[in-house]
Amino acid sequence: MGLYKVLLVDDEEDIRVGISRKMDWNGLGFELVGEAENGRDALELAESVQPDVVLTDIKMPFMDGLELCSILTKRLPGSKFVVFSGFDDFEYAKQAVRMNVSEYILKPINAAELSGVLQKLKEQLDAERTERQNQETLRQRYEESLPVLRSLFLSRLLEGRVDRTEELAARYDVDLSGPSLAAALVHIHAPQERRELLSLSVQQLFEENLSLPGCVCRPFLYKETVALLASLHSEVSIYDFITAVGRVCALSERYLGVKLTVGVGTPCATPEELPKSAAGARSALDYRGLVGKGGTIYIGDLEPDAGVRPAFDENDERAVTAAVKLGSAQEVRDVARQLTDKLRASGQSMAQCNLFFLELLTCLLKLTRSAGLELSEVFGSGFTGTVQATDFDSPQALEDWCVERCLRIQELIRRRRTDSAGELVERAKRFINDHYAESDLSVERLCAHLHLSPAYFSTLFKREVGMSFTAYVTVVRMEAAATALRTTEEKTYLIARKCGYDDPNYFSYVFKRHFGVTPTKYRAGA
Asked: Which residue, 9, 164, 352, 398, has most beta carbons within 10 Å?
């Protein structure tokens, strides 16, 4: 196992030096990755080094060890904490326990005692690491059983018995992203007792030989036979898929010595419609007595009305909305392409796709309204909403129109969002300038004023300003302090208080870190 990382925090340099030199870190299974002289510096350092163990004094300036442990317990839940104290105080010990501190050591620190504590912590850390590795073993076992679980998922998908489809499809690595999906069922022309044995061979035959660019096909065992679930991408049609399946059927006679007949259902647009495609595949197999043994039978050829007209459903609306509001221009184009691929795969005329188009148009109108945009901004002046699918001579023309409208909505939304973000940041800066002298100024207080969540505001502020809220407040306070030092004769502690620092020593510490000199020397050189 690798070495565990230790962060040492103590305001007395000789103690830090003594501990760092006396301990056999590597021999104990640790490495000292950082030192800090106070709790505030330790917080910043801990974010970068991510220690496994924090050794800290209790009594320190600016932030004591117990407050440090309290904060780091939340930020580094897997870390261990050891506190030092020069006072045999039971109240400190009780607080340390509440802060999830592992050990409490009295000063002066004995190297042998600290070594024993570290050995104990290493045992705990080793046990936790072993537990994580055991979980990894469980994960590996799960991956070994993944083919069986995937087959169960696919079987339930064909029968319409699946909730959380997208989540499970991602978990089992099943591609359902194509603009059209199709189910197919294989009939093995062999005695019943041989079919079960042949099913695995047939599944493997399809896995190794069904190759079609733009098509992802999953063969799986299904009710004593083999089923195929195809995700058809790009310009791949259902007839391209049927041809590829037919080639595998021909190979079966040569490799396995058995005929295969494959019933192919009509393509559908969503996973929820796959049971209809599977039902079509079963119906297609019913015609094998009429068509003959071997090859493929497409239900769309025998029952033309069995096809499903394309529908603009909730998934499509979510995809369009997400692409416009959060995606890139390319993601908008991809979504528009997926929608028109649905139309192409359906084989329907533009007139037959009018309901699909009207639902798409409704989605764009809702987006426009929810963003507070004028219809003329998006659709042009004089727009009356009477656009129909028959106004376009091809799916490509409809796709181009859809892309243009979506990109226009996206541009207008982002323009307003940028203006809004800039105004929010300016309001935040004004609030900071008005309240930097108050020591209790915090991001939570500012966000309550702005009616924003702290998480969103912090991300927005750093993106727009280039520094965090805390760093910006420090800059404002330091500039105000510098001005006061240059232009007034006020005492340093009064300037500190007017700049939001109740502790003049901490003010001096921050000032020197910011300007490189103490407030007194800064004033002398001003």
From this structure: 9
Of residues 240, 175, 250, the one with CA closest to residue 209: 250
What is the three-class DSSP state of 216?
strand
Give ∠ CA 451-456-461 in degrees, rounded to 5.
Answer: 95
The whole-angstrom separation of Cα 224 and Cα 137 is 32
d(CA 446, CA 454): 9
CB 260 within 8 A of CB 187: yes
Please give the pLDDT value at position 71: 85
Stretch (H or E) spanning 342: helix 329-346
Taking the C-alpha atoms of residue 81 and residue 6, their distance in angstroms, rounded to an integer, is 10
- Bridge partners (DSSP) of residue 82 are 55, 103
Distance CA 26, CA 32 (A): 9
* Type of residue at 200: L
Tens digits of residue pLDDT in 450-504: 888 888 888 888 888 888 888 899 999 999 999 999 999 999 999 999 999 998 9
* Angle in degrees, CA 154, 155, 161, rounded to 5: 95
CA dihedral for 133, 135, 138, 139, sign (positive or negative): negative
Give one DSSP letter per residue of 433-453, joined into a string: HHHTT-TT--HHHHHHHHT--
Please state, in angstroms and rounded to a whole number, the distance separating the CA atoms of residues 155 and 144. Answer: 19
Q: Which of 17, 18, 14, 10 is nearest to 39 (CA)?
A: 10
- The model's pTM is 0.39
Segments in 159-266 forming alpha helices (H): 165-171, 192-209, 238-255
Cα separation, 156 vs 172, in Å, equals 13
Of residues 291 and 308, the one with the higher pLDDT is 291
Q: What is the dihedral of CA 514, 516, 520, 525, to 10 degrees?
A: -120
Please tell me which residue, 260 or 90, carries the higher pLDDT value. Answer: 260
Q: What pLDDT, on the 0 to 100 scale, is given for residue 65?
A: 85
Q: With beta carbons less than 8 A apart as the criterion, state whether 268 and 277 touch.
A: yes
- CB of 69 closer than 8 Å to CB of 101: yes
In 204-362, the DSSP E strands lie at 215-222, 225-232, 259-264, 295-298
The fraction of the chain above a pLDDT of 70, given in percent, is 93
